[in-house]
Hints:
single chain
Amino acid sequence: MLNFHSVNQAVSSKNELGVVICRHCSDVVCTLPTNGIKKISGVCDKPECRKQSKNGEVKVG
């Protein structure tokens, strides 16, 4: 589940409405300056998430 508190901490500017979320653990990876709200999936730097990504595993739900 997305942790909204970590999203608020990650946003450094009010113009950064884009959020990159790890597809495995749902942590906020970074924010991006965008013209509107955008949610993008990526992979964080945690070893277990990198391993799942390398093995092609995707968390469902």
